[in-house]
Amino acid sequence: MKTNILILLAILLMTACRKDDVVIDPSIVNPATTYDTIKPKSYLPYFPGSWWKYQLNDTAEITISTSSTYILHSYLDYINYDLLNTDSVYVPFYNSEPVYGYDKIEYIAPPFGGSYKKWPILSEVVGFSFNRDWTDPRWGDFNEKVQVSEKIFNGQDSVIILKGHWVYGPKISWKSYQEYTKGVGLTKEFIVDTLTNDTVLKKILIDYYINQ
Fold first, then answer.
1. Is residue 90 domain-resident?
2. How far is CA 26 from CA 19, 23, 90, 143, in A?
3. CA dist 208 → 103, 144, 147, 150 (Å)
4. Is residue 10 part of a domain?
5. Distance between CA atoms of 90 and 198, rounded to whole angstroms?
6. How many folded domains does the chain comprise?
7. How far, in Å, CA of 63 to CA of 95, rounded?
8. Can you tell me the distance from the alpha carbon of 203 to that of 46, in angstroms, rounded to the nearest whole number?
9. How confident is the model at residue 57 (pLDDT cuts 50, 70, 90)?
10. How far is Cα of residue 179 from the mean position of the Cα atoms in its chain?
11. How far apart are CA 128 and CA 15, in angstroms?
12. Under DSSP, is residue 4 helix (H, G, I), strand (E, B) or coil?
């Protein structure tokens, strides 16, 4: 009876709180259990132990890296109408966030779910459109609208070009541009205010290491 009460209390606490996606401590993983690994894709080669150095707005340099190993991960989602953790899989972490191929994990706030979803970062399909992130639609559509504009060969590499814009709010005059190079990842990113002709963001890859 006492055990049943403790289980009920645990369930109530779990449903009352916001759930974070779960990173599983490898030390408690059952060695007899086999888990799948989500390997990086061609235009987001986020292999463990890799890094990318960017020049930012011509004034600073930033380095973004992946985790040193694949990390066991799951997240809370609706599965057959129940809020449950997905099956655990090994994924790379880029900039401290899990990456599932061309998807990230995005939190969908209540009352729209209180759960997590796979969310596009990139696609190889020209014409594919998506919102950059999830935003609460009750307060207006402040999201960046992104489209895979082109897939080109620049004479040396295959490159996917993304273009974005905003339809509402203070960024409505902004346009974004990103280049993802096969086998490298993000190589260029710009955001320009078309009203003032100011460059809001300029991010250029200057060095990198892919640990394949």
1. yes
2. 20, 9, 10, 36
3. 21, 27, 26, 24
4. no
5. 42
6. 1
7. 9
8. 18
9. very high
10. 16
11. 35
12. helix
Kindly state the DSSP code that residue 24 receives in the 8-state scheme: -
Q: Which residues span the domain enclosing 165?
A: 19-209
In a domain, 176, yes or no: yes
How confident is the model over 14-52, as pLDDT tens digits?
A: 333 344 576 765 655 666 679 999 999 999 999 999 999
Convert the pLDDT of each residue in 143-198 to its tens digit.
999 999 999 998 899 999 999 999 999 999 999 999 999 999 999 999 999 999 99
List the Cα angle 22/27/33 in 5-degree steps.
80
pLDDT at 20: 56
Structure-derived torsion over alpha carbons of residues 201, 101, 46, 126, reported in degrees to the nearest 10? -50
Does residue 122 belong to any structural domain of this protein? yes
Closest CA to 128 of 149, 142, 104, 143: 149
Q: Are 130 and 144 in contact (CB under 8 A)?
A: no
Q: Give the Å distances, CA to CA, from 140 to 109, 112, 171, 180.
A: 15, 15, 13, 30
Task: Measure the CA–CA gap between 210 and 183, rounded to whole angstroms.
Answer: 8
